[in-house]
Structure formats: C-alpha cells, structure tokens
Amino acid sequence: MNPRPKTRTVTLGLLQHACGPNPQENLKACLEAGARAAKNGAQILCTQELVCSQYFCQSEEHRYFELAEPIPGPSTQAFQNLAKEHGVVVIASLFEKRAEGLYHNTAVIIDADGSLLGIYRKMHIPDDPLFYEKFYFTPGDTGFRTWDTHFGRIGVLICWDQWYPEAARLTAMSGAEILFYPTAIGWHPSEKAEYGAHQHGAWETIQRSHAVANGCYVAAINRIGLEQPIGGDGLEFWGQSFVAGTSGQLLGKASVDQPENLLVTVDLAKVDVTRTHWPFLRDRRIDAYGDLTRRYRD
Fold first, then answer.
1. The pTM is what?
2. Cα separation, 6 vs 8, whole angstroms
3. Residue 159 annotated among the catalytic residues of the structure
4. Which fold has domain 9-281?
C-alpha cells in the first residue's frame, strides 16, 4: 500500500470584483480576472454569485428573466474555454433558464480540461427586503454534491446556503475537501452604522464554523460595490472574500471595496489530519438526529 502523501497543495483563486449593468462586460471582466489569477498560480477559480449581472433581485421585475441562459450555454462555454486554456478548475455562478417559466440560481463546475463536470442549483432561496430571490429562482433539486476535480474533491453551495450547517455537513459527508460559496451579500446602507459589523461578523463566523465542524476548507467569494438598479439606497456589497482553514482559521481575506484576486494555497492532506484529531464525523450520533427532518420540534 502506498503511504498517504504528506502534502497535497492547491492554490485557490477567489475572483472578487464589482458588476455593472452590461452582462457581456461583466463576463469579460471576470474571464480576464480569471486568466490573471491562473497566470499567477491559481489552480481552482471561483466567481462570485450571479457573476454576469448586477444583483437584480433587489426588485421583482419580469424583465430580469431575460438575463437567464441555458446551461450549457454561452457563458458556460466561455468558462470552459478559460479552464481548458489555463488548465484550471472553474466554478462559475450563473442565472439558469432550465425551461419556459423554470429558472435556477446555478453554479457550473468545470474541470481543468474544460469538461463540464456538473451543476449545483441553489437549495435555500431567501425572500427579504432587496433580496427577493423567491420571485426568480426555483429551489434546487440537485441535492448536496461533490466532484472529483484535477486538483481535489470539492463541494459547491451558494450564498444563502451558507447559513445552514445541514448543507455544509451533507456536502462534507460526500467527501468535500473544500466548500466553495459564491456569494452576493451586502449592507442596506441605512442599516450599516447600526448593524453592519454584527451582520458581517455573523456571515464570516458561520462559515468558519462550517470549516471547524467538518474539518475542511471553506472559500467564500463575494462581490463589491454599491448597486442601485432600481434607484433608492441600493445594496453596498461588503467584499471581504476569504478562505478558512480546517480549524476555522483565516488563511486569506480580500478587501472591503477593491477588486481583487485572492490567491490562497491550501494543503488538502490537512483535511484527514484534522478529522483524525478532531473526529466530529466519527462521533456523530446519527441514531439520534431523526428530528432534523422536521420543520420544528413542538
């Protein structure tokens, strides 16, 4: 039997930037950022949520369904070309038109040879002021999945999914060494002074907790900038994309308001080391968790 490798390093590239009203310009900017990150050593690239558009879910308007496209489709192909040209794995978050009247918030997972490994459709769909996603997105039906890529076994979840420990756990139980979270989250400007620090702290803490509880890496990719597609105060996206290590420690963090390719090198061999020393998966009482399938325990 061959001994387990002492190191299995891979460099993650988190593509953080602003988005404008022109989808083609947004796609072009993301592809250019991805190419730069690859040339600088990134091996797995991940975009922010809904990378080809501004965050249109600030209002409920039928015209925004025109932004959606099939998967595979033009944007998927563009990211496949990027992956093949640079020999990198790519995770890209897109607005999917699955059929007439059926739309999803979907991530495509592309291997380093440009092949489309599969998709993940966002499972948890929010409905909050300026985050009216239930109007646009059908809840996902792919389940919580992982993919063996050229550079490691990865799981992908999307934005609102990041608040749910069940989603992280089930993805980790499928063998994920890294959990990727394409994200679009920000402040209501009128609330920032009172709640901003607490909101951001909660967002970062819950995801670092997923790393601790599952002994895996977590990469969260957020956008930046103030977006006001319907006028008013809009949303101020808080950036601060980050990578957490297998014990929840911050390994790298991007700025609040600047476009940035955050490159972080991780050692996948530490997943097994961490899970052996902190054996949370071993000690789970699966015989006692049946009530988790209930809405509420009265």
1. 0.96
2. 7
3. yes
4. Nitrilase/N-carbamoyl-D-aminoacid amidohydrolase (3.60.110)
